[in-house]
Structures are given as structure tokens and as C-alpha cells.
Amino acid sequence: MAGQPKLRYKTATIDISVSTTISDIVDVGAGEIVGLIMPSVLQTGNITFQAAQKGSSTFLEVRDADNNVVTVTSAAASKFYTISFIGIKGLGRIKLVSATT
Description:
By secondary structure, the protein is an all-beta fold.
């Protein structure tokens, strides 16, 4: 449709190695995380986020305005989870943290 903005998106593979619980750094720049696709080999568990400003090596837990940790609860294999938390937009650099149950 004329006048409608074109949607642009970028995908990134985020790996959490078998012997660890925290991913490598992912640079999301000024972008927004809109969802997570879980691999078929994922063990069920919560996924949380850490974030750091560009140029900083200090990663902090991402929390909402009520001081709750932003969590994808009981993430399961072969599922797509939408991320609607507004604070995720423009975080700069993130890490995912997996806690298997």
C-alpha cells in the first residue's frame, strides 16, 4: 500500500554453548528484539536478558518498570516467543541467559 512504511528486520543466531548458561554478546544497535525462535534441542527453562550500552563491558539484568526481571518463562524447544517488553528496544548489546528446569 502506498504510504505504508516498509518493515525491515534482521535475524541473528544467538548461541548458548552446552557447558554455559550465558550467550555471547549480540549487537542489536538501535533495533528491537521482536521474538525468539527456540531450537529443537533446547531444554525447557527460563530465558532472561542482560544488556550493556555500546562501549561498556558491564552487563546488567534487564528489568521492567516494576523491577521484575524480563523473562521468557519455561521456554520450550521448537517454539517462537514474541517479545513485547518495550524496554528491549535500543538496548545496544545483549546477552541471553538460560536457566534450565
